[in-house]
Every structure is written in C-alpha cells, then in structure tokens.
C-alpha cells in the first residue's frame, strides 16, 4: 500500500476522482458530478491510497483555522472495502494536518458509517443529524492528547 499526498493537477488527482466516482456505485451517482466536486478548489489537498497501480481510497482535507482541520469525502472503492484502506487514508490526512499545526480534526460522517470513525477515536459533537437518507450525517471530532492524556483543546 502506498499513500500519496495530492495537491494540484497530477495523475494522482485523476485517481482521487476515480475513487470518488467508483464509491458512488451502484449507479446512478450519489450526486451529480458538478455537485460532487463543487467544493474542490485548485489548492485542495487530498490523500490517495494506492494498492499497486490501482487507486483504492481517498479523502480531501482542509485546514479550518490554526488548530482545526476537516477531513472530507472519505471514499473507498466498493470492492476494496474492509481492508484498512479508508482507515489508512484518514490516518494519513490526520498526519498531514498535524504537520500544519492542527490538533483537532472534524469529520461530517454519514450515520451509517459513524462506527468506523468512532473506532479511530472520533466522537459525536452533538446528536444533530443533517442531510437526507442515505446521506444523513453527524459531525464528529477527534483531538490529539498530550503525554499526560489531557485533551489539548481543554
């Protein structure tokens, strides 16, 4: 497994888009293409997880402020789910955001996969559900801990 940090136009960006479209299967796409990619910007940052020469998982990340980063659009191609690629992508995004000074991470998770993020240390900020099925979502957060185990955001 290889992890790529993706910024700007490159063959890796094509892999990011491939995974996001493939993860929307079965057809039709979960959202029209213009809507699916509406928040992507020229300076957007992505993680692309490759297995050999095949893109298998991706996520987008952005820094919201000096200490908070958001991980978005986490996706794994359906035929590779359950093999740790999504988790590896989230961990790589957290590492990249940490290098940028972030100490707290947010993920707007579909409720159907909330347990996936909870296993990685994320907790619901509130019980408010947004969106509509099958994309009803809940906001989750994870904070880094100090060596004493204290939450650094307290």
UniProtKB/TrEMBL annotation:
Presence of the UniProt keyword Acyltransferase in the record: yes
An example molecular function term from Gene Ontology annotations: acyltransferase activity, transferring groups other than amino-acyl groups
Pfam families: Acetyltransf_1
Protein name: GNAT family N-acetyltransferase
Start and end residues of each N-acetyltransferase domain: 1-145
SUPFAM superfamilies: Acyl-CoA N-acyltransferases (Nat)
InterPro entries: Acyl_CoA_acyltransferase, Bact_Acetyltransf, GNAT_dom
Taxonomy of the source species: Bacteria, Bacillati, Bacillota, Bacilli, Lactobacillales
Annotated keywords: Acyltransferase, Transferase
